[in-house]
Amino acid sequence: MSEQEELEASAPMPPLLLASASPRRREILRRLGLPFLAVPADLDEDAFAAAFQGSFPDMVEALAVEKARAVAAMEPDFAGLILAADTTVILDDEMLSKPVDSEEAARMLRRLRGRRHQVATGVALYDSRTARLASGQRSTYVWMRNYSDAEISAYVATGDPLDKAGAYAVQHALFHPVERVEGCYLTVVGLPLCLVMSLLREQGVVELPLLAAGGAQGCAWSARCVPPLPAGATIAAR
After folding, report:
1. Is 86 among the catalytic positions?
2. Host H or E run for residue 141
3. What is the DSSP letter of 230?
4. Which residue out of 58, 86, 92, 149 is catalytically annotated?
5. Which 3 state secondary structure label does DSSP give 236?
């Protein structure tokens, strides 16, 4: 039996493809307790972003939709749900995407230091059986701590910033760049489970026990989103 056949046989819902190569999104999605396969989208994200006319939060939602559709075209025999996401950092009405090299990563981190910025994540869920699409976006405000130039250099030397929008990981165990988060923490990491839960419901997936625990008020995942922030850092729900 192939990997996809095993997935379809064991899944409590239609089989799921994650249209992403991000290890962070794979880790977050595992919290749902669902089996899935990861198939990165073959898409020129920079060209899409440059051509998009609209706000940055709308752009990441639109890009998530394009990623889902791109994977659907890449996997024409797949019959199930395709989940895609895109995240960007917004500072001074400018989008900070992934840095091209270590020097740009250091410049981004110096700009962000001690300041508030916005992180927006768009999510799309596409049902390849019905061509039904559901999408949405979440935005979170993040305050960075006043880290030193030496800390920037040490963090950049790890190579960790190079595949991350804004050149940082909120959850990095050594750098700890964030002082305060206002909103959904997992939006900053790259995949808000509260939004994923909502989109699954829109697609008719209601039998999952963790979905049923949500309710109409608040976030069903607040107890599960425990970030490794430094002492004194805070998270405030909005």
Report:
1. yes
2. strand 132-144
3. P
4. 86
5. strand
